[in-house]
Structure to design on (165 residues):
């Protein structure tokens, strides 16, 4: 599941899904559709880093003013999806974000990871950040391939976790 304003986080989500698809059936969903997780073995969520963390309605509106191509994504983000997900107890999860590669840029993934833990998720791997060149992107060189490899690692961790139970 992904939140994306300029298309970069969606591109990472699709690359992660490609990596995971070698080991499992994968469904990709825009977070704006408020996807349900019932029946899923693993959830992978990703969003852009806005103002050092998870986006908010005001930061999404700011992205629209900066030329975001996904104007419809301005109403619901990862934060709102997690707020509506009262109990994810025992759900296996992984989290990623996209962000500008600058010192002190914060991380939406680290914030989302903490919130998912509080909701009861079991994190399979540490959160991961994928870099964009400037606010609108594009993704930095090599990030799609790195995302695909990370997706493979998430799938491998999910398989290993399932074998332990």
């Amino acid at each position: 599941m992904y939140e994306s304003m300029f298309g970069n986080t969606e591109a990472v989500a699709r690359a992660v899904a490609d990596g995971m698809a070698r080991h499992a059936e994968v469904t990709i969903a825009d977070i704006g559709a408020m996807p349900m997780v019932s029946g899923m073995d693993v959830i992978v969520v990703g969003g852009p880093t806005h103002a050092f963390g998870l986006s908010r309605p005001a930061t999404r509106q700011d992205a629209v003013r900066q030329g975001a191509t996904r104007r419809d994504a301005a109403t619901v983000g990862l934060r709102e999806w997690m707020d509506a997900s009262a109990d994810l107890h025992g759900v296996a999860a992984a989290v990623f974000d996209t962000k500008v590669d600058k010192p002190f840029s914060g991380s939406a993934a680290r914030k989302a990871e903490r919130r998912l833990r509080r909701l009861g998720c079991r994190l399979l791997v540490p959160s991961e950040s994928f870099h964009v060149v400037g606010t609108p992107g594009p993704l930095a060189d090599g990030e799609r391939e790195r995302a695909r490899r990370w997706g493979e690692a998430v799938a491998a961790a999910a398989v290993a976790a399932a074998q332990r139970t």
